[in-house]
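Protocol step 4 of 6: structure prediction from sequence.
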Amino acid sequence: MKQFKITENDANQRLDKFMKKLFPLATRGLLYKLNRTNKVKVNSKKEDNEYKLQIWDEIKIFLNDKDFEVLSKEIDKKQDLVKDTNKRSKLDKKDIVFEDNFVLVVNKQAWLNVHPWDHKTKESNLISQVQDYLWDKLNSLTFKPSLAHRIDRDTSGIVIIAKKKDILTRLVEDFKNHKNIRKYYLAIVSWVLEKKEWIIDKKLERIENAKNENKVQVSDKWQKALSLYKVIKELKYKNEVFSLVEVEIKTGRMHQIRVHLASIWHPIIWDKTYGNKSLNHYLQKELGVSRQFLHASKIDFTNYWTWKKMILEARLKDDMKDFLEKVK
Protein backbone atom coordinates (compact mmCIF):
# COMPACT_ATOMS: atom_id res chain seq x y z
CA MET A 1 0.00 0.00 0.00
CA LYS A 2 1.20 3.49 -0.90
CA GLN A 3 -0.04 6.66 0.74
CA PHE A 4 0.05 10.24 -0.60
CA LYS A 5 -0.92 13.68 0.68
CA ILE A 6 -2.46 16.08 -1.84
CA THR A 7 -0.63 19.40 -2.09
CA GLU A 8 -1.79 22.64 -3.69
CA ASN A 9 -0.25 21.62 -7.04
CA ASP A 10 -2.24 18.37 -7.10
CA ALA A 11 -5.54 19.75 -5.77
CA ASN A 12 -8.62 20.79 -7.77
CA GLN A 13 -8.39 17.96 -10.28
CA ARG A 14 -10.59 14.91 -10.68
CA LEU A 15 -9.50 11.69 -9.03
CA ASP A 16 -9.28 9.85 -12.36
CA LYS A 17 -7.18 12.66 -13.87
CA PHE A 18 -4.83 12.45 -10.89
CA MET A 19 -4.54 8.69 -11.28
CA LYS A 20 -3.85 9.01 -15.01
CA LYS A 21 -0.98 11.41 -14.31
CA LEU A 22 0.32 9.15 -11.55
CA PHE A 23 0.19 6.13 -13.87
CA PRO A 24 0.42 7.61 -17.39
CA LEU A 25 0.68 4.30 -19.21
CA ALA A 26 -2.29 2.70 -17.48
CA THR A 27 -5.45 2.37 -19.56
CA ARG A 28 -8.59 4.16 -18.48
CA GLY A 29 -10.22 0.78 -17.95
CA LEU A 30 -7.47 -0.30 -15.57
CA LEU A 31 -7.72 2.93 -13.58
CA TYR A 32 -11.50 2.54 -13.26
CA LYS A 33 -11.03 -1.08 -12.21
CA LEU A 34 -8.63 -0.05 -9.44
CA ASN A 35 -11.26 2.30 -8.06
CA ARG A 36 -14.15 -0.10 -8.58
CA THR A 37 -12.33 -2.88 -6.69
CA ASN A 38 -11.57 -0.59 -3.73
CA LYS A 39 -7.83 -0.36 -4.42
CA VAL A 40 -8.01 3.45 -4.29
CA LYS A 41 -9.26 5.25 -1.17
CA VAL A 42 -9.57 8.97 -0.47
CA ASN A 43 -9.49 9.78 3.24
CA SER A 44 -10.05 6.07 3.92
CA LYS A 45 -13.23 5.82 1.81
CA LYS A 46 -14.16 5.15 -1.78
CA GLU A 47 -14.83 8.18 -3.99
CA ASP A 48 -16.22 8.48 -7.52
CA ASN A 49 -13.76 9.09 -10.34
CA GLU A 50 -15.27 12.58 -10.73
CA TYR A 51 -14.36 13.52 -7.14
CA LYS A 52 -12.28 16.73 -7.04
CA LEU A 53 -9.23 16.40 -4.85
CA GLN A 54 -8.72 18.91 -2.04
CA ILE A 55 -5.55 20.07 -0.33
CA TRP A 56 -4.45 17.61 2.37
CA ASP A 57 -6.64 14.80 1.06
CA GLU A 58 -5.00 11.47 1.79
CA ILE A 59 -4.83 8.99 -1.08
CA LYS A 60 -4.19 5.30 -0.40
CA ILE A 61 -3.42 2.97 -3.29
CA PHE A 62 -3.51 -0.75 -2.52
CA LEU A 63 -0.97 -2.27 -4.90
CA ASN A 64 1.86 -4.63 -4.06
CA ASP A 65 5.39 -3.23 -4.13
CA LYS A 66 6.30 -4.99 -7.36
CA ASP A 67 3.36 -3.58 -9.34
CA PHE A 68 3.92 -0.13 -7.93
CA GLU A 69 7.64 -0.28 -8.72
CA VAL A 70 6.89 -1.10 -12.35
CA LEU A 71 4.47 1.81 -12.66
CA SER A 72 6.89 4.16 -10.92
CA LYS A 73 9.67 3.29 -13.37
CA GLU A 74 7.31 4.02 -16.26
CA ILE A 75 6.50 7.41 -14.70
CA ASP A 76 10.17 8.30 -14.45
CA LYS A 77 10.71 7.30 -18.07
CA LYS A 78 7.66 9.21 -19.28
CA GLN A 79 8.46 12.42 -17.42
CA ASP A 80 12.24 12.28 -17.98
CA LEU A 81 12.88 13.01 -14.32
CA VAL A 82 15.56 10.41 -13.59
CA LYS A 83 18.72 12.12 -12.44
CA ASP A 84 21.31 11.08 -15.00
CA THR A 85 24.10 13.62 -15.06
CA ASN A 86 26.13 11.48 -17.45
CA LYS A 87 23.59 11.97 -20.24
CA ARG A 88 22.71 15.64 -19.95
CA SER A 89 24.32 18.85 -18.79
CA LYS A 90 23.35 20.65 -15.62
CA LEU A 91 21.78 24.07 -15.23
CA ASP A 92 24.58 26.55 -14.64
CA LYS A 93 23.73 28.54 -11.51
CA LYS A 94 25.28 31.60 -13.14
CA ASP A 95 22.36 31.47 -15.60
CA ILE A 96 19.76 31.87 -12.85
CA VAL A 97 18.41 35.41 -13.15
CA PHE A 98 15.86 35.14 -10.33
CA GLU A 99 14.33 32.48 -8.12
CA ASP A 100 11.75 32.34 -5.35
CA ASN A 101 9.28 29.67 -4.23
CA PHE A 102 6.99 30.32 -7.20
CA VAL A 103 9.06 31.09 -10.31
CA LEU A 104 12.52 30.39 -11.66
CA VAL A 105 13.87 32.74 -14.33
CA VAL A 106 16.90 31.61 -16.31
CA ASN A 107 19.18 33.02 -19.00
CA LYS A 108 19.04 30.21 -21.57
CA GLN A 109 22.11 29.28 -23.54
CA ALA A 110 21.94 29.37 -27.33
CA TRP A 111 21.56 26.00 -29.08
CA LEU A 112 19.69 24.58 -26.10
CA ASN A 113 16.23 23.14 -26.75
CA VAL A 114 13.59 24.18 -24.24
CA HIS A 115 11.77 20.81 -24.40
CA PRO A 116 13.18 17.26 -24.72
CA TRP A 117 11.09 16.53 -27.82
CA ASP A 118 12.13 19.63 -29.77
CA HIS A 119 14.05 18.92 -32.99
CA LYS A 120 13.75 15.16 -32.35
CA THR A 121 17.07 15.03 -30.52
CA LYS A 122 18.36 13.40 -27.36
CA GLU A 123 20.51 16.43 -26.56
CA SER A 124 20.21 18.23 -23.24
CA ASN A 125 17.22 20.54 -22.86
CA LEU A 126 16.24 23.37 -20.55
CA ILE A 127 13.24 21.80 -18.82
CA SER A 128 15.23 18.66 -17.95
CA GLN A 129 18.04 20.81 -16.56
CA VAL A 130 15.51 22.73 -14.46
CA GLN A 131 13.85 19.60 -13.12
CA ASP A 132 17.24 18.14 -12.23
CA TYR A 133 18.16 21.38 -10.45
CA LEU A 134 14.87 21.38 -8.50
CA TRP A 135 14.91 17.62 -7.86
CA ASP A 136 15.02 17.84 -4.05
CA LYS A 137 12.41 20.61 -4.02
CA LEU A 138 9.71 18.84 -6.02
CA ASN A 139 6.83 17.88 -3.73
CA SER A 140 4.01 17.37 -6.22
CA LEU A 141 2.92 14.00 -7.52
CA THR A 142 1.50 15.18 -10.84
CA PHE A 143 2.80 18.73 -11.46
CA LYS A 144 6.38 19.47 -12.47
CA PRO A 145 7.96 22.92 -12.97
CA SER A 146 6.96 24.02 -16.46
CA LEU A 147 7.82 26.70 -19.01
CA ALA A 148 5.45 29.66 -19.11
CA HIS A 149 6.69 30.47 -22.64
CA ARG A 150 9.50 29.53 -24.99
CA ILE A 151 12.22 30.95 -27.22
CA ASP A 152 13.99 29.48 -30.26
CA ARG A 153 16.73 26.90 -29.86
CA ASP A 154 19.43 29.24 -31.24
CA THR A 155 18.17 32.31 -29.37
CA SER A 156 19.59 33.02 -25.93
CA GLY A 157 18.05 34.84 -22.99
CA ILE A 158 15.24 35.01 -20.46
CA VAL A 159 12.81 32.15 -19.93
CA ILE A 160 10.29 31.93 -17.05
CA ILE A 161 9.57 28.59 -15.37
CA ALA A 162 6.58 28.32 -13.03
CA LYS A 163 6.97 26.19 -9.89
CA LYS A 164 3.27 26.26 -8.99
CA LYS A 165 0.32 25.12 -11.09
CA ASP A 166 -1.81 28.22 -10.49
CA ILE A 167 1.12 30.52 -11.30
CA LEU A 168 1.73 28.62 -14.53
CA THR A 169 -1.93 28.95 -15.54
CA ARG A 170 -1.91 32.73 -15.05
CA LEU A 171 1.42 33.32 -16.79
CA VAL A 172 0.53 31.14 -19.79
CA GLU A 173 -2.72 33.09 -20.14
CA ASP A 174 -0.80 36.39 -20.02
CA PHE A 175 1.64 35.26 -22.70
CA LYS A 176 -1.21 33.95 -24.84
CA ASN A 177 -3.22 37.17 -24.62
CA HIS A 178 -0.21 39.52 -24.55
CA LYS A 179 -1.30 41.22 -21.34
CA ASN A 180 0.67 42.14 -18.21
CA ILE A 181 3.81 41.06 -20.08
CA ARG A 182 6.44 43.12 -21.90
CA LYS A 183 9.27 41.30 -23.67
CA TYR A 184 12.44 42.91 -24.99
CA TYR A 185 15.17 41.49 -27.20
CA LEU A 186 18.60 42.65 -28.31
CA ALA A 187 19.54 41.89 -31.90
CA ILE A 188 22.55 42.70 -34.07
CA VAL A 189 21.39 43.38 -37.61
CA SER A 190 22.97 44.12 -40.97
CA TRP A 191 23.67 47.73 -41.98
CA VAL A 192 22.58 51.05 -40.48
CA LEU A 193 18.86 51.67 -40.07
CA GLU A 194 17.55 54.91 -41.51
CA LYS A 195 14.82 55.22 -38.86
CA LYS A 196 16.25 55.01 -35.37
CA GLU A 197 12.89 54.12 -33.83
CA TRP A 198 10.03 52.47 -35.65
CA ILE A 199 7.02 50.19 -35.37
CA ILE A 200 7.03 47.28 -37.79
CA ASP A 201 3.37 46.45 -38.39
CA LYS A 202 3.25 43.54 -40.80
CA LYS A 203 1.02 40.48 -40.66
CA LEU A 204 2.74 37.11 -40.64
CA GLU A 205 1.77 33.74 -42.07
CA ARG A 206 3.17 30.43 -40.89
CA ILE A 207 3.86 27.93 -43.66
CA GLU A 208 2.96 24.45 -42.48
CA ASN A 209 5.38 21.61 -43.25
CA ALA A 210 7.89 24.00 -44.81
CA LYS A 211 11.15 22.29 -45.77
CA ASN A 212 13.17 24.22 -48.29
CA GLU A 213 11.41 27.53 -47.72
CA ASN A 214 10.96 29.99 -44.90
CA LYS A 215 8.56 28.80 -42.22
CA VAL A 216 7.09 32.29 -41.73
CA GLN A 217 6.50 35.05 -44.24
CA VAL A 218 4.85 38.45 -44.42
CA SER A 219 1.22 38.19 -45.54
CA ASP A 220 -1.52 40.82 -45.73
CA LYS A 221 -4.20 38.26 -44.98
CA TRP A 222 -2.85 36.54 -41.85
CA GLN A 223 -2.05 37.21 -38.17
CA LYS A 224 -1.36 40.72 -36.94
CA ALA A 225 2.18 41.22 -35.62
CA LEU A 226 3.77 44.31 -34.06
CA SER A 227 7.46 44.85 -33.30
CA LEU A 228 8.83 48.12 -31.88
CA TYR A 229 12.55 48.68 -32.37
CA LYS A 230 15.05 51.36 -31.47
CA VAL A 231 18.71 51.59 -32.43
CA ILE A 232 21.07 51.32 -29.46
CA LYS A 233 24.39 51.56 -31.25
CA GLU A 234 25.88 51.57 -34.73
CA LEU A 235 28.88 49.29 -35.34
CA LYS A 236 31.58 48.80 -37.94
CA TYR A 237 34.07 46.08 -38.87
CA LYS A 238 36.32 46.82 -41.84
CA ASN A 239 33.86 47.61 -44.67
CA GLU A 240 30.82 46.08 -42.95
CA VAL A 241 28.40 48.05 -40.78
CA PHE A 242 25.87 46.75 -38.27
CA SER A 243 23.33 48.01 -35.74
CA LEU A 244 22.55 46.86 -32.23
CA VAL A 245 18.80 47.25 -31.77
CA GLU A 246 16.36 46.66 -28.94
CA VAL A 247 13.04 45.16 -30.01
CA GLU A 248 9.86 45.00 -27.96
CA ILE A 249 7.29 42.58 -29.32
CA LYS A 250 3.62 43.35 -28.85
CA THR A 251 2.56 39.99 -30.27
CA GLY A 252 4.16 36.57 -30.00
CA ARG A 253 4.25 35.12 -33.51
CA MET A 254 6.68 32.43 -34.55
CA HIS A 255 10.00 33.96 -35.77
CA GLN A 256 8.37 37.40 -35.48
CA ILE A 257 11.48 39.50 -34.83
CA ARG A 258 13.57 37.63 -37.40
CA VAL A 259 11.00 37.97 -40.18
CA HIS A 260 10.08 41.57 -39.36
CA LEU A 261 13.71 42.76 -39.40
CA ALA A 262 14.45 40.83 -42.58
CA SER A 263 11.37 42.37 -44.22
CA ILE A 264 12.84 45.87 -43.84
CA TRP A 265 16.21 44.67 -45.26
CA HIS A 266 18.01 44.50 -41.93
CA PRO A 267 18.17 40.79 -41.11
CA ILE A 268 19.73 39.51 -37.91
CA ILE A 269 23.29 38.47 -38.60
CA TRP A 270 23.85 34.75 -39.00
CA ASP A 271 20.14 34.05 -39.28
CA LYS A 272 20.42 30.97 -41.50
CA THR A 273 16.78 31.11 -42.62
CA TYR A 274 16.03 34.79 -43.17
CA GLY A 275 19.52 36.31 -43.25
CA ASN A 276 22.21 37.18 -45.78
CA LYS A 277 24.06 33.93 -46.52
CA SER A 278 27.20 35.51 -47.99
CA LEU A 279 27.52 37.90 -45.03
CA ASN A 280 26.93 35.04 -42.61
CA HIS A 281 29.76 33.07 -44.22
CA TYR A 282 32.06 36.10 -44.05
CA LEU A 283 31.31 36.73 -40.36
CA GLN A 284 31.86 33.10 -39.48
CA LYS A 285 35.24 33.12 -41.20
CA GLU A 286 36.34 36.53 -39.89
CA LEU A 287 34.85 36.65 -36.39
CA GLY A 288 33.71 33.14 -35.58
CA VAL A 289 29.99 33.98 -35.55
CA SER A 290 28.03 30.72 -35.49
CA ARG A 291 24.45 31.54 -34.47
CA GLN A 292 21.82 34.21 -34.94
CA PHE A 293 22.57 37.15 -32.65
CA LEU A 294 19.17 37.45 -30.97
CA HIS A 295 18.95 37.61 -27.18
CA ALA A 296 15.87 37.84 -24.93
CA SER A 297 17.29 40.55 -22.73
CA LYS A 298 14.49 41.82 -20.48
CA ILE A 299 11.03 40.91 -19.30
CA ASP A 300 8.39 42.82 -17.37
CA PHE A 301 5.76 40.57 -15.77
CA THR A 302 3.58 40.03 -12.71
CA ASN A 303 4.60 37.48 -10.09
CA TYR A 304 1.10 36.34 -9.22
CA TRP A 305 1.97 34.90 -5.84
CA THR A 306 3.39 38.14 -4.47
CA TRP A 307 1.34 40.32 -6.88
CA LYS A 308 4.47 42.35 -7.53
CA LYS A 309 5.50 43.74 -10.89
CA MET A 310 8.94 42.44 -11.80
CA ILE A 311 11.45 43.70 -14.34
CA LEU A 312 14.33 41.30 -14.93
CA GLU A 313 17.29 41.49 -17.28
CA ALA A 314 19.63 38.80 -18.59
CA ARG A 315 23.26 39.54 -19.48
CA LEU A 316 24.46 38.99 -23.02
CA LYS A 317 26.10 35.66 -23.72
CA ASP A 318 29.84 35.68 -24.36
CA ASP A 319 29.60 35.29 -28.15
CA MET A 320 27.47 38.43 -28.59
CA LYS A 321 29.47 40.30 -25.98
CA ASP A 322 32.79 39.43 -27.70
CA PHE A 323 31.41 40.44 -31.10
CA LEU A 324 30.36 43.85 -29.82
CA GLU A 325 33.83 44.42 -28.41
CA LYS A 326 35.43 43.58 -31.76
CA VAL A 327 33.19 45.75 -33.95
CA LYS A 328 33.19 48.99 -31.98
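Step 5 (inspection) to follow. The first helix runs from residue 15 to 22.
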